[in-house]
Amino acid sequence: MVTFETLEPIDDATLEELGFDWHTDSDGTKYVANQLVEVLPEEAEAYYEAVNEIYDMYVEAAEFIIENDLFFELGIPFNLVDAIKKSWENDVHWHIYGRFDLAGGIDGKPIKLLEFNADTPTALFETALLQWALLKHNEFDDEQQFNNVYEAITENFKRLVTLFDDPEQFEELYDGWKILFSSVSENSEEETTVRLLQQMATDAGFNTAFEYIEDVEFDENGVYDKEGNKYEYWFKLYPWEDIATDEPELATLLTKIMDNQEAILLNPAYTLLFQSKGMLKVLCDLFPESPYLLQTSDKPLEGKKYVEKTMFGREGANVKIVEANGTVVEHTTGPYDNHKKIYQEYVELPKDVKGNKYQAGVFFAYEACGLSFRKGGEVMDNMSKFVGHLIVE
Fold this sequence. Notes:
Layout: E1 4-6, H1 12-17, E2 32-39, H2 41-68, H3 81-89, E3 98-103, E4 112-117, H4 124-137, H5 149-162, H6 170-173, E5 178-182, H7 188-204, E6 207-210, E7 217-219, E8 222-224, E9 230-231, E10 233-236, H8 240-246, H9 248-259, E11 264-266, H10 271-275, H11 278-286, E12 296-297, E13 306-310, E14 320-322, E15 328-331, E16 341-345, E17 357-364, E18 368-376, E19 385-391
Parallel strand pairs: 2-19, 5-6, 5-10, 10-11
Antiparallel strand pairs: 1-2, 3-4, 3-17, 7-8, 8-9, 12-16, 13-14, 13-16, 14-15, 17-18, 18-19
Helix pairs in contact: 2-11, 3-9, 5-7, 8-9
């Protein structure tokens, strides 16, 4: 049974002063739970080790997909294949951060990979800053969390310059390169997330700026803000698959910009391979003995309960949970029903005494760097709650 420490919540006005204004869901309930999940030190260490190993498997799987031209099997839009290959071939296209969603890890349940939000993961502000603020607000020791997300991503920005070498060499190698950060306008959660990443890059030592995506300008020679200033790096919190389908001309232009080596795009295009849930099947094919993987197929599983997911579904949309006898016991709607499907073995999430279920999220930035949880029902959707954690002996 999941156990937790009940908290004195931070009031809404203070949260808004911190820049966190999506604290209340559309039904009037609070998005952030007034509790911290209790995690043992060995459980935190197990999350760390599991995520590092899983990421290495993703890297091997991506190489396999590219070598064997399996892009269609992963639902990858054809107009991004060249960008994926080019970003994969050169280490300067560095993966800044992602978030793994995991079942288990607490209450004696084994850690199992559910999916990898590698391109545009959210819950960054909550994990990096808010759960730490809750810890301090309730006078706990700030060492009682597996949470160095801010520092890890800051160091990973330095690796855009140092790559696999010591990030402390950044200052001697940095040559004034600038990063433009972008989100869509009128979405405070995404803008706050991007501005947090901008601050991390600034702390790393980069010159940075912010521009809404709709105001960014592009040509074959680079990426520019609306004043015409050119940038060597562009970070966009906008899914690669949406660029491919909604802005195909931009997808072509971004590939040419990469061809001409005029800008480096973050997160890189190859993270679309990681983002695709089709990777879950490839991982099972390549690593059948891994204890972290659930059986996954491109066909409904026979004789066992499974979850039907779409390749690029988000926030629990277009998910079905199907019993071994074929009975659908849970079904969510959404905009992704025309995407290719995968079928993943069902796993029970840890529960508390009230029957609420808990899904772990672990951020990755060169290595696993921070843990948090989502609390909800059978399918974690945009009404699930954010829950921090507390390491207890």
